[in-house]
Amino acid sequence: MSCKVKICGLKNREDARTAIEAGADYLGCVFFPPSPRHVEPQNAAEVFDMIGDADVLRVGLFVDPSDDQLMEVLNHVRLDIIQLHGHETPSRVEEVRLNFGLPVMKALPIETAQDVEAARAYDKVADRLLFDAKPPKGATRPGGNAIAFDWNLLTDTSWDSPWMLAGGLNVENVKDAIAQSGCKAVDVSSGVEAEKGVKSPELIEKFIAAVKG
Ligand SMILES: O=C(O)c1ccccc1N[C@@H]1O[C@H](COP(=O)(O)O)[C@@H](O)[C@H]1O
């Protein structure tokens, strides 16, 4: 089975169509106002509408959301997965799953072997895990910073929950990232952009081809 791909930070229909036609397995929209990739719920609904009957999952990315924020988005947008990319505790992850009846993918910041061990508190609690690089000091967002971590930290690790690799992936490094980490799914945002917050159709196509080719 080939490695799955999530294209995150989509803001318009055209980029969504490119990702779907190129073979993306997940599309992601960011609901975090400080991000250059933030979209309003109505806009996200238009992005996800491009999926139609295709076998592609809709992922909503949130950072320490309140139930009110989640409700506001879910009133307008059908999601298949809620991605929590902030400092949510294991009990908050359980609460979100329970309150909204949707699978939760918990993003976990990795820099050292200790960070990998700390992530185990979320294994089985979250439906899926997403390993991303720890953001640099002073960063204005906890992800989407085009920073990679040492993929070998994940080599031969074993998890009950399915997991994805993220953080600084791009057309040049994604094959090595898959080989070293042993991941079965990758997530990219910055690496398929022409400039911050602006996706490049050409890079989306090249990235997916590099993963699946
Ligand atoms: O993309 C963002 O702006 C963002 C904001 C807040 C939290 C996470 C964010 N992005 C996610 O971070 C990882 C890695 O992204 P990158 O490829 O290094 O840019 C990925 O899951 C993004 O969706």
UniProtKB/TrEMBL annotation:
Enzyme nomenclature, EC number: 5.3.1.24
Pathway: Amino-acid biosynthesis; L-tryptophan biosynthesis; L-tryptophan from chorismate: step 3/5
Entry superkingdom: Bacteria
Presence of the UniProt keyword Amino-acid biosynthesis in the record: yes
GO biological processes: L-tryptophan biosynthetic process
Catalysed conversion reaction: N-(5-phospho-beta-D-ribosyl)anthranilate = 1-(2-carboxyphenylamino)-1-deoxy-D-ribulose 5-phosphate
Gene3D superfamilies in alphabetical order: Aldolase class I
One Gene Ontology term of the molecular function aspect: phosphoribosylanthranilate isomerase activity
Start and end residues of each N-(5'phosphoribosyl) anthranilate isomerase (PRAI) domain: 5-209
InterPro entries: Aldolase_TIM, PRAI_dom, RibuloseP-bd_barrel, TrpF_fam
Keyword list, A-Z: Amino-acid biosynthesis, Aromatic amino acid biosynthesis, Isomerase, Tryptophan biosynthesis
Family indicated by similarity: Belongs to the TrpF family.
NCBIfam families, alphabetized: PRK01222.1-1 (NF002295)
Protein name per the record: N-(5'-phosphoribosyl)anthranilate isomerase
Organism of origin: Candidatus Terasakiella magnetica
